[in-house]
Amino acid sequence: MKMSVSTPLWFSSSDEFAMGDIDVGFYLSILRRRLPYIVACVIATTLIALAIAGNMPRTYMSAAKILVEAPQIPAALVQSTVPTSSVGQLQIIQQQLTTRDNLVKLAAKLKIFAGEKEQPPVDYLVKNLRSRITFEQTEVSSADGASVFTVGFVAGSPALAASVANELATSILTSNQKRRNDSAGNTLQFFDDEVKRLDGELNHIEADVLQFKNNNRDTLPESLTFRRTEQSGLQERLISLDREQSDLRTRRSLLVETYMVTGKYPTGEPLTAEQQMLLDLNKALADQLTVFAETSPNIISLRARIAALRAKVIPEKRENGDAKAQSGLDLQLSDVDRRIDAIDKEKVQITARIAALDQSIVATPATDIRLNALERTVANTQTLYNTAIAKRAEALLGKQIETRSDGGRFSLLEEATEPLEPMRSKRRLIVFGGVAAGLALSFAIIALLEFLNKTIRRPTELVQMLQAQPLAVIPFIQTPYESRTPPLKRKLNSVTRMFS
């Protein structure tokens, strides 16, 4: 048989399976040569996985069903004082039940780890129980808003699984009812305290307003119109008194002048023409003095005429005058003087009262501002008080609803029972994992062996070693004897020749 020296048979056959730069035939030959390693690794890991799966304990799961009912009384009629929804309350209770302290108490109460040789550490206990407790929502009714939740527990015995699941369900129902009652009670207590606080604050502010009004009663805005009316009346009264006082003084002057002219006080007897003219001139002088000064020509002229006429009409006085006329004049003058003095005193009082009214009217705007601030505080506090009263009434209704369990509530729909069959274990998954681990381990061993093997088996490796392209590659050519002799026998013969 003729064969090309530069192209060996094993090199030609490997090119037929080459895919790009990857020599598939070469790697398949490695897998065929290393197949015993693969089989050994897969068998070993599979046996280990089967042993682990066979020694896994049986586990049982029991679950209790809890019905979350919608409120019996519509929220449009009475609003519940428990703001959290039923689902939210269940989540809160779930977190509370799975706290560290509660799980430790649960394990001690039901002796969950009684079969253990020694009590496990607290961290392991808590982590283990949390992984074995399940909460899930199974059914939801969109019509009435009711829903069903299940709480389950996984244990090594059916009785323990059922007892723990029922204990958890009972704890959920108790905690829910307690939470709702406490929430409603706390809400009612809050509004009771708020009503008492606002009532005391309102009484205090009202007392301040009353005291402020008493201290500023003369400048209160509600009496401003009355004070202005009183001020106008007093001013008119003052003008009237001035007019009356002027008339009294004129009368007094006339009395004195008449007595000086006639020698007697007016008794109703007719006067002479000179006497009447003298009286008229005195009246005119009194009127002119209200308009002109003493140095005015009109005043000087009137006084001269009065003096001339008086000298003409006044009779000579007798040594023994009329005592009766003098006495009557004194009485009239005394009455006039008393009235003038009374008018002066009344004018002083009226002037002081007008000044006080002016001062109170000026101070009224400032009093009004301060009073409005106090009254706004009273109004705001009263509004808060009324709101607190209304909220307290709602809280009282909410408390009654929760006491009668007419709000959203939890009820035990189905107790947990002892399961008849264990849970589906992960034995198959463990076995499949053992097979996969054996394959991975065998491939890793083969890769390590090939990496450590420095034998040249391909022309490409020879090229890489020589760093040059050879002219030809001469393969190993077996003799007819070597081709008929098994490989193991050939290796034994080689070893024998080496030591012979």
Automatic annotation (TrEMBL):
The chain crosses the membrane at residues 35-53, 429-449. Pfam families: Wzz (PF02706). The keyword Nucleotidyltransferase does not apply. InterPro entries: Bact_polysacc_biosynth/exp, LPS_length_determ_N. It is a multi-pass membrane protein. The keyword Coiled coil applies. Residues 21-109 form the Polysaccharide chain length determinant N-terminal domain. Residues 188-215 form a coiled coil. GO terms for cellular component: plasma membrane. It is found in: Cell membrane. This is Lipopolysaccharide biosynthesis protein. Keywords: Cell membrane, Coiled coil, Membrane, Plasmid, Transmembrane, Transmembrane helix.
